[in-house]
Design goal:
It contains seven helices and 58 strands. With 937 residues, it is mainly β. The protein has six domains: 109 residues, no CATH class; 90 residues, no CATH class; 214 residues, no CATH class; 84 residues, Immunoglobulins (Immunoglobulin-like); 195 residues, Cytochrome Bc1 Complex, Chain D, domain 2 (Orthogonal Bundle); 144 residues, Galactose-binding domain-like (Jelly Rolls). The longest helix is centred in the first third of the chain and has 28 residues.
């Protein structure tokens, strides 16, 4: 018996060892990848590839580790990953301005909006660009040949034209993707006004066609507010694939339409396995439900086939808007999702719209979503993202994500900075979502896709609209199954300054997750000047003194024990001090707007090289000052459009003032011929190209003759190239359409007014901006300051610090405080003039709420007490919904317990904490729910 057991044991051991050896052998050729096991987050490494683009919009991948990127103002650039070089290959002429019926000119959302490489690019070198025609009011889809780093303009073939209006903002779309049959999908925005109500666009009054989305997204005979599907042909035309929404020849329809009923569809992607189409869609701005219909929602959408997605009649989970006659300001019944019809006078298509109406796949408001609470609360701008399929990548692709993510849709939001991994069932229906790399932030992500190497690439636009941003960048997320690259963080205590100045660099925050690399990383800082010279510094911390003016890049490269390295860079400017801009509200509170009819302000600008506004060296017209109403939920594009116009005019005025202070006017006038040509004639003669700008800068500095006559143009060797360029930029601007926005004076009064149609729940933004004159040929630097006056009613979900909070989102949002000494905190509130704080609390017997008193403390949860409320244990009972004619907000306030606290005099900015007290409560007991907190003066 023992012998049999020993034979059995040995046989088992032999089989076990054989199995292990077989498994190990398989591992060498095909690593074990269990789709049920979530990989460690530290196996993903963020790598910054390039930074500092001018409004990047979309990217596409080319062979040989190259990425093609387009910029809104027309730049077409190729980034080479192997060399790290970015090359401008062409500048496409595009329109970038809106001019409304009153003649006001503003920066436009349109320009060069999209790019895609043909699937057979390696053979035919074709790329497709979607852009706003520089002359005609239309958007154009055109094909070009890209040979290496040369865009052959003579190969241009216009495939498709989308007629548009360019009187009013907004929404262009421009995202593109090819399917496996060679069909091209193109997203097209609604090209319609953002209504002040933040709701749907249903304005049928004469002259308001641009405010009626029934004439575009809801119109079967219009290409706007659609996703188009066409098949580009080799001769530069296109055909219509089978299976679009309307068969060719259908009366009052466009056969190019694949899906319709979109407001602002962004970046599309296709699931290579199912063929389903996915995209992000930016919704309207209303922050609450109202008489005109539901609040605004952004959406992430899925199309399993052609269909109607509801806008402008439905949003989110097919929530209907109400019929609205703006001529009489009357409302009717909600639109019928089972029988959608377009009866607008501006409709040129079918009356009966396709059914069933397809609801959103994921939808979320500004506040916390009851259905998808993981998405949080904040500004919102759904971008889109790819569906990962491991089979899409070659076996030698180095950074392919693990099988855990197979079939998941990775989505990103431009405003909120998260990436979510969305899981779906075998039918493609939503199951769940989880945060991807929750410790990382992907701010202003305008495009996202997997590259041929298996890494996830994210194109980030940058922090400010309508300008090049130093923090715009292309990054990629690499998955490393083996050795992990270091995660690199580089910082400096000073990035600009007059020479000499010393910058102290630190790699604090850099790490490596492999145990064998701990304490063994090597750090190299390369300080590279704009003339190509490089100085290398060693160590985790380093210092360098800049003594020669110029532009520099400090690149930190960190290398681990396996030779793997990762880098991060900082841009520095030596020889020019950054300007300081400040706004003084003359002692008024700078956090809250308390209803003042006017506000006094003063803007101060000082610059080491330029002087200051106080001594008159910096003139008022060289500083952009704007004041705007900010709705409670708003599209930042329109506000940025106005601000950008004021900024560009301020910069151009620097060039005009340089002309005025020079001897140029002795020979040239602005509009009439003198000894030399007028500036207007110069602008007419020469197209505004980099080559012509460079040529004219040379003539201003070195002089010249023979172009306009025999009289020689005087040389101006004392002028720097930078100042000469500012003068030329102003001359070229004379014949261009310029923003007509008027900048405010440096000192005066502003009158806060709630625009017609707004609910008054928003705030105000006073902003000042100055771009300095540089120093010699050293680049300009900018400074800005702003005062954001918010509504004095604070939403508790905006609190930055929390203890003992339970947030429930079903059936409605409840912000519960749990247990004695629970608290929330708000950072950096100006308490100047605040005399009282009132809390609007819910206390319900249904959840056995115990009630509480509230202490208000400053700077920490244990800081000085500046106020205390009485204890409240009950709230009015007002039913489950507001009565007819009462807003939900008013109803909520009426039916809240309203304890208040008198506030001790506190000035300046502080962190404010609200501590909820009930010594009889257990830690799991609900004390109250917080609806709002009101600051009063």
């Amino acid at each position: 018996m023992n012998q049999l057991m020993e034979i059995s044991r040995r046989k088992f051991s032999f089989l076990f060892i054989a199995a292990v050896l077989a498994f190990s052998s398989c591992q060498k050729s095909e690593p074990f990848d269990d789709p049920t096991i979530k990989p460690d987050e530290n196996r993903f490494t963020k790598v910054v590839l390039t930074e500092g683009m001018d409004e990047p919009m979309e990217m596409t991948f080319l062979p040989d580790k190259r990425v093609l990127i387009v910029e809104r103002k027309g730049g077409v650039k190729v980034f080479d990953e192997k060399t790290g070089e970015m090359t401008l290959v062409a500048t496409i002429p595009v329109n970038t301005k809106y001019t409304n019926k009153e003649g006001m000119v503003r920066e436009a959302e349109e320009g060069l909006m999209g790019v895609i490489a043909h699937p057979d690019f390696a053979k035919n070198h074709w790329i497709y660009l979607y852009y706003a025609d520089p002359v005609d009011t239309q958007h154009v889809l055109a094909r070009f040949e890209l040979d290496g780093n040369t865009l052959k303009e003579e190969t241009k073939k216009v495939l498709l034209v989308v007629p548009t209006q360019r009187e009013e903002c907004c929404h262009t779309g421009g995202g593109m993707v090819f399917d496996q049959e060679g069909n091209l999908y193109l997203t097209v925005g609604n090209n319609t006004v953002n209504p002040r109500t933040g709701s749907s666009n249903l304005d049928e009054r004469p002259g308001h066609e641009n405010s009626d989305d029934q004439r575009a997204p809801g119109n079967t005979n219009d290409l706007r507010g659609k996703i188009l599907r066409i098949h580009p042909e080799d001769d530069g035309t296109y055909t219509i694939p089978k299976g679009n929404l309307f068969p060719e020849g259908t009366e009052k329809t466009r056969p190019e339409i694949y899906t319709m009923g979109h407001r602002n569809p962004w970046r599309p992607s296709l699931d290579s396995k199912t063929g389903y189409l996915y995209w992000g869609e930016v919704g309207p701005d209303a922050s609450v439900d109202s008489i005109w219909g539901p609040k605004g929602y952004d959406e992430f959408n899925q199309a399993k086939g052609p269909g109607f997605f509801g806008w402008p009649y439905f949003i989110g989970d097919n929530y209907p808007y109400n019929k609205h006659d703006l001529a009489t300001e009357t409302y009717g019944e909600p639109f019928d999702v089972n029988n959608p019809v377009n009866e607008s006078v501006n409709n040129t298509g079918l009356r009966e719209l396709p059914t069933p109406v397809v609801p959103a796949f994921i939808w979320y408001p500004y506040g916390v979503s009851e259905i998808f609470p993981m998405l949080g609360s904040s500004g919102r701008s759904a971008t889109g993202g790819p569906v990962f399929r491991k089979a899409d990548f070659s076996k030698d692709a180095p950074y392919v994500f693990p099988a855990y993510y197979d079939g998941k849709w990775l989505i990103v939001d431009f405003m909120r900075g998260w990436i979510m991994a969305v899981s779906m069932d075998e039918n493609g229906d939503y199951q769940s979502m989880e945060r991807f790399l929750p410790e990382e932030t992907f701010s202003s992500a305008i495009d996202m896709d997997f590259g041929p190497d298996g890494a996830l690439y994210v194109l980030e636009y940058g922090s400010a609209w309508f300008r090049g941003n130093s923090n715009s960048r292309l990054i990629k997320i690499e998955y490393n199954a083996g050795n992990r690259k270091p995660n690199v963080n580089a910082a400096a205590d000073k990035l600009t300054g007059a020479v000499p100045f010393t910058a102290n660099f630190t790699a604090a925050g850099t790490n490596d997750f492999d145990d064998y690399d701990q304490g063994k990383l090597t750090y190299t800082w390369a300080i590279t000047s704009d003339n190509g010279t490089t100085v290398d510094l060693q160590g985790e911390n380093a210092s360098y003194t800049f003594e020669t003016p110029g532009a520099y890049k400090a690149t930190l490269t960190v290398t681990d024990t396996k030779g793997e390295s990762n880098s991060a860079s900082l841009d520095l400017v030596a020889g020019n001090e950054k300007p300081e801009v400040s706004i003084d509200l003359m002692g008024k509170n700078e956090t809250f707007y308390f209803g003042d009819k006017s506000l006094d302000y003063k803007v101060l600008v000082s610059d080491k090289e330029d002087g200051s506004t106080a001594d008159g060296s910096i003139k008022s017209e060289e500083v952009a000052v704007t004041f705007d109403y900010v709705p409670a939920g708003f599209d930042p594009i329109e506000m940025a459009s106005k601000q950008s116009g004021a900024e560009s005019m301020a910069v151009l005025n620097i060039g005009r003032n340089l002309i005025e202070s020079s001897d140029c006017k002795s020979c040239h006038q602005y509009d009439s011929t003198s000894i030399g040509p007028s500036y207007a004639d110069v602008a007419k003669k020469y197209p505004n190209t980099p080559a012509n700008v460079s040529m004219l800068v040379g003539k201003v500095i070195n002089g010249g003759s023979g172009v306009w006559g025999d009289h020689a143009m005087s040389a101006h060797p004392q002028l720097s190239e930078a100042d000469a360029k500012r003068m030329i930029d102003y001359i070229f601007s004379m014949n261009e359409v310029k923003p007509t926005v008027t900048s405010l004076p440096l000192e005066g009064k502003v009158s806060p007014e709630v625009p017609e149609g707004e609910d008054g729940q928003g705030g105000y933004l006073l902003r000042a901006y100055y771009s300095d004159k540089g120093a010699g040929n050293i680049q300009s630097l900018t400074g800005e300051d702003f005062v954001a006056l918010r509504n004095p009613f604070l939403n508790p979900t905006l609190s930055e610090v929390r203890k003992g909070v339970q947030l429930l989102t079903t059936p409605s949002i409840n912000f519960f405080m749990m247990g004695d000494q629970s608290y929330i905190g708000f950072k950096d509130l100006d308490m100047t003039g605040v005399k009282e704080i009132m809390l609007y609390l819910g206390i319900s017997a249904r959840n056995n709420a115990k009630g509480a008193s509230v202490e208000i403390r400053i700077d920490s949860p244990t800081g000085t007490v500046i106020g205390q409320t009485e204890k409240v244990t009950s709230a009015p009972a007002g039913g489950f919904r507001p009565p007819a004619g009462m807003s939900r907000l008013e109803w909520m306030r009426q039916n809240s317990a309203k304890p208040f606290a008198k506030i001790s005099e506190v000035n300046g900015r502080h962190d404010i904490y609200f501590i909820f007290k009930n010594s009889d409560a257990k830690s799991e007991d609900i004390l109250v729910s917080i609806n709002e907190i009101e600051f009063k003066n």
